[in-house]
Amino acid sequence: MKTSEYAGYDALGLAELIATGQVTQAEVSAAALSAIEQLNPTVNALVEVWGDEPQATDGPFKGVPFLVKDLGLTAKGRLNELGSRLAAGCVADEDSTLMSRLRQAGLVTLGRTTTPELAASTTTEALFSGPTRNPWDLSRSAGGSSGGSAAAVAAGLVPAAHATDGGGSIRVPAASTGLFGLKPSRGRVPMGPAVDEVWAGLAVHGVVSRTVRDSAALLDAIEGPATGDPFEIIRPQDSYLGQTTREPGALRIGLLLHPLNGARCAEPVANATRDIAAQLQGLGHNVEAINLDIGLSWEGFVEMNGRFWSTNTAAWINAIAAGTGRSVDASTLEPATLALHEWGCRLTATDLLEAMYLRNLVTRSMGCFFSRYDILLSPTLPELPPVIGRYNEGQALVDGRGWIDRVFAHSPFTALANVTGSPSMSVPLAFDTETGLPIGMQFSAGFGREDRLLRLAAQLERALPWSARKPGAWAGNL
């Protein structure tokens, strides 16, 4: 199988070729490894290649190449370095639940993808691994914190890859690189067994992919509670893949055109959002511009998230330092991470409990919203992907709260769904005419309603297909 041919298939397409004997697992893996060898030096999406993974014996994705983010899950005997010098050389003792499910699905993991240090950023430019570059414009960021996974999928190195999302880390890189990215509901995909919830429940596991059906089928493979999980949520009566063949019906959609921080979206983004709103009207949906009340001021919302981010990051850092015997200082951590650690160590238990109280206000307010509307539509990001280096300028001069302000200014739309635990997706429905860069549209639904999002996403994929557009750094050109 030629690398250029391999890149033209999504994960389910490759699985079908293997299942019907048209190609072998070995041929598909060889094509993927060739793509990685030739293009990864350009985009810097992988921190490590695994060329010794065994062939799959069963599963709906039997033999399909896959990549996992260097954070959030563990693979027995493999490095788990979290994008940080502090965790360099750390090796996992066991497969996490999600890793086991990926193996059971038949996916053949070929390596780890880059992440910003401890996922505390929405760009992937860690000192540990260097900047990950956007396949659409190598001078620009691929987003974060799942930027390595997104760059790899967008460049055609693999058809889909693991990602995590604690404040937008699936949707931000998906929007930046022209991919489909679905953040599942809190509790949909297990986080264990070493932890019950990550970042106090803000973070979830998912994937980035080039097609809606791949994300749906992969969610089918990994969803569902594991033994000892802290809670269970209602599971779908039909498969998620089955949802992609069903029409969504006429949906009530609330449109949030500009972020709640008082800033304005860049003109290409605002224009694209207005156009998509009109297209949705043409598909029979009712789209209404709204003034969104999240039950909290913007400053209060950022402060609340900052307390969750900093306290969880501080505890994580302390645990890694204790396990490795390394010091917590500039030799092991970047300035922004150190600043978050310092802030997190200063906060008290009552500070964190107050943040939990504020989260409840937001969740209740958004619950009321989703009793009136089926979908919340906004841009995924207010601007086009930034040039490499711009996001981190002056990082050493900001304190922990200042860093959170910067993160939330870059991605002001995405964290709301992490706070409420609701599903949310970025769909690559638009492109900037001047730069050719992708523009993602974000759609969020009520808790547990991934089915509604996937029906809508599939309808949009049929009506406004995006697969014909390819970035300059594309394995199909090899």
Automatic annotation (TrEMBL):
UniProt-listed InterPro entries: Amidase, Amidase_CS, Amidase_dom, AS_sf
Pfam families found in the cross-reference section: Amidase (PF01425)
Gene3D superfamilies: Amidase signature (AS) domain (3.90.1300.10)
An example molecular function term from Gene Ontology annotations: catalytic activity
The Amidase domain, residue ranges: 31-454
PANTHER family: GLUTAMYL-TRNA(GLN) AMIDOTRANSFERASE SUBUNIT A, MITOCHONDRIAL (PTHR11895:SF7), TRANSAMIDASE (PTHR11895)
Family: Belongs to the amidase family.
Annotated protein name in UniProt: Amidase family protein
Organism for this UniProt entry: Pseudomonas fluorescens (strain Q2-87)
